[in-house]
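Forwarding these from the shared drive since the link keeps breaking.
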Amino acid sequence: MNKKLILLITFLAFAAGLAGGTAGSQLVLAKEFKIIKGQEFQLLDAQGNTRSTLSLTSKGYMFLAVHDNTGKITDSVVVTPELIKSSQKTANTLEKLHDMFNKK
């Protein structure tokens, strides 16, 4: 798999876990559901350096960037509906190949 696909899958897993954990905790605790809004979200390391950003492109697509320890973008991906469909097809194909080669 290429870097962008791995980055996309990692981000989608993170987002799903975050959404599920947030929604689950709200249901269990029966608290008011809070929404965090912003134009850009940054993940910082312990020293306060930006290591990842999440924002939107001018067309409204999600933009995810990974930064090095100096804050410079080292990799990025724009998540479009076409990219998601493509990654789902790739995942399905990989699963079929895995099943085919692991039959006993």
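-- next protein --
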Amino acid sequence: MVNTTKWVLLGATLVSMGVVFVSALIPVAYQQALVNLLVGELAALTLAHSTYRVSSGKQVSPTAAAIAILSGIVLFLSPILIEPVDPILSIMFAAGAVVTVGGLVGVLGRFLGGEEGRQTGAERIRSKAGN
């Protein structure tokens, strides 16, 4: 479960980082560009923090997971409320869904992670090697 959580969080982090730069590639309204920049950056920071914690053998912070979930929902809904044009609508739907799933996987990893979720990466490798 730890490896799955780590890779999903890393993927969601990369997607949220990409959201920051979408406005530079696709012409959008000023308000949409601000939402992409601010909320995308907040999501990237919280998801990267969660990825780091999972990789270090700690559980995801509940606050970081909640912020990631809320950021994903905001990213998902923002083009509907601001400017529903085709390319940005599809991109933000996909990105918002990935960021939200990343936050939800962090929550699931926290509750279902078990003992493996409280070990550092070195401890997991050592236990799998049989030492």
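The helical segments are 2-25, 30-55, 62-82, 86-112, 121-129. The chain has a mean pLDDT of 84.

- D.
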